[in-house]
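Reviewers of the previous submission asked for a worked example of the structure-prediction workflow described in the proposal, so we include one complete record here. The input consisted solely of the amino acid sequence. No template or homolog information was supplied to the procedure at any stage.
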Amino acid sequence: MQPTMPTTHPGGDPRHTFLKPQEVIARYRWGRTHGYLELRKATFPRPIGGNYRLDTLIVWEDGCLTANEPELGATVAAVPLVEPVTEQASIPVDVPALIDDSPAELP
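From that input alone, the workflow returned the following structure tokens.
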């Protein structure tokens, strides 16, 4: 089933526009299994009569998009990156060398 927004939901106020669970999953391009797991999360807007209000989904989207941004006036600590080591220290290591080159015996 391909939900179509224009035929299912004519234009109007987002507060009065409700989406079915299948339409919410299609809106965010989730797979069916992942989508239903997302719909059950406590942080996702609650359904009203089994449908989701478009305005609450938009507020939830904005919260997800701004969750990684620091607040105005917040102190941001920058962690310097360590440069990768390009040269190895030459430390002599004693590794026993195998001298026997004869083939192994079969069982």
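Residues 18-66 form one domain. We consider this example representative of the routine output the project will generate in years two and three.
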